[in-house]
Amino acid sequence: MMGTQGGAVNSGPAGSQPPARPRGPFNSIKFFVFCHSLLQLAQLLVSGYMKSSISTIERRYGLTSQKSGILAAFNEVGNTLLIVFVSFFGSRVHRPRYIGGGALLACLASLMMAMPHFLSGQYSYTDRISSSSHNSSGLCQSRTTLSSNQTCQEQESRAQQVVYPLLLLGQLLLGIGAVPIQPFGISYIDDYASKKNSPLYLGILLAVTSIGPAFGFVTGSFMLRYYVDFDKLSKEEIKLDSKDLRWVGAWWLGFLVAACLLFLTALPYLFFPRVMPKENGEEDEESRPEIKHQQTSPEQEVSLLHFLKSFPRIALRTLRSPIYLLVVLAQVNLAALLSGLATFMAKFIERQFSQTVSFSTMLIGGVVIPLAVLGIVLGGALMRRFRLSVYSASKLCTTAILLCIFSALPLIFIGCPTQKVAGIFPRSSDPMSCSSGCHCPPEAFNPVCGADGVEFRSPCHAGCVFNETDSYGKVTNYTNCRCVGDHGFARPGTCGSGCAHLLLPFMVLLGLTSFIASFSQTPSYMMILRTVPNEDKSFAVGVQYMLFRVLAFMPGPVLYGSAIDTTCILWGKKCGKTTSCHYYNLDLFRRRFLGLQVVFVCGALLCFLLSAVVLRRRAGTQELKPQTKSGYELVGDHKTPEVLSTKEKELNGLKT
Hints:
- This protein is mostly helical.
- It has two domains: 22-121 and 157-280 and 311-417 and 500-649, MFS general substrate transporter like domains (Growth Hormone, Chain: A), CATH 1.20.1250.20; 125-152 and 419-496, no CATH class.
- The protein has helices spanning 2-11, 13-16, 29-52, 54-61, 65-73, 82-88, 95-119, 126-130, 149-155, 158-161, 163-177, 181-192, 198-223, 253-266, 289-296, 298-302, 304-319, 322-352, 357-386, 390-408, 503-517, 521-529, 537-553, 555-565, 586-621, 646-655; strands at 448-450, 455-456, 466-469, 475-479, 490-492, 568-574, 577-584.
- The strands form three sheets. The chain has a three-stranded antiparallel β-sheet, with no helix packed on it. A two-stranded antiparallel ribbon has the order 3-4.
- The longest helix has 36 residues, at 586-621.
- It starts with a helix and ends with a helix.
């Protein structure tokens, strides 16, 4: 008997001596929320930074938007199945240590994402590859000069060939490392926070979940202002500027910063206990379900065989709830929308409104995402202030998404048609006979804007014979251009779409849409947590995130990227191979890109509306009026969540 009691104390010191625990910061749920917020900030910074740099990586390594979408979505592959298994063991394992281990793996993945820069050679934009040494300026030449195959062979080195697989592997490990972080964190906080503060903590955590990508975008905006090879070239050797369509920023630098932050934020999780007392001393016995499992049969609870036997029953019990399914499907629609917009919105702004990559990225990280965070926090505050029931939460979500549609629809009509590009758009243009004698390399891409407002893909295609340079050797003007009317000169760079003045109203509507849609975030999460049994919370959240990955985060970027590729009107060429797109049909780009957004918003509205209808009907028939196993009333406005007595919980457990 003495040994049994001693074993109980050793296996769960927190459970046998609750008064001694609150003395240290690692026994406070508030401190856990703080540490978990920092970890989420660092982990999601990597994800946000990846999305902010995706168009730059696309340009650097000649990827299509579809390949970029696959790369952006590949971190979901590693955790699609693992997240269900890990979440099932959420209340049966040491959650803080698993979270810390996942963070360290994400740190390693972030370092791996930066490796391609050090393995590959210097960035060579198209003219350096396609033009010979006698025509390095890309001007009109009366004699044919062929490019050297040696340059292409150097570009196709072994290091260059492993870049894309290495990036995919880094994304895969990043996804695996993220598996335990959010599900374990959410369930851990919900278990040990008081019922009054739980929605607020969840709102804070979800807000930080959005701030992380925001920091990633802001970091990307700062890093992309530096040339990709600034560590290999002197300032005088860098001939491009950030406004050039061939510009590639230092995309790799942010991954090194993120790796350091992940390592530091992972350390505190080594000291958090497996269990801690309920906040404010509430329901201390209920807050320790894992101790009950551990005392009964620890080997059985954590065995894979027991999991495989229990999985179908728990999964069926979770998925049979129509409210759970409808809310998760609504979130899936919003997640698919978010994944596509986060990956390609900066590219859309860059092309549609003729902005630099760094500025476009700053707009996403500095305007759109902070407004979404504000909406998430206000949604959580409303849940706490008015103590909304599940039915009231469904009405709030439905109203928010309905308003979101009205603010999202006008975005499709804000934009300008594609600029006139000689020989490319419109297709009825002259076959460029004026430059036929220049022997322009088919791979040449160095956009110039003629004095008559017509853009050319290179000074050679414009028939330019001479150029003017400044004291630093950079070209400032091209003269004697055969294909340019008026004065026959052209300036370096694109003419632009002429839509820069529409950027302000577009960003206002986009920010408003983001703000309104995010109101549904916290209420929808609380609807899920309040409609599943306490013992199934980790599993339910795990299934939720698995569906996010399978139905939203994985196909979303690929779907958006494929839609963008269909609007390309000129593909790049390098060493005889197709690379990234040079020019898009901006009208099609806008309609297809933003049209997908409206489709997903409508899908979310339908699901939230159906959930409200189901809850309303059940309220009328009194089917859900009694308290459920989770201890909450599901219907009735302004009902305070009440906890079932221990005896009632035991009876419910026997029925299950």
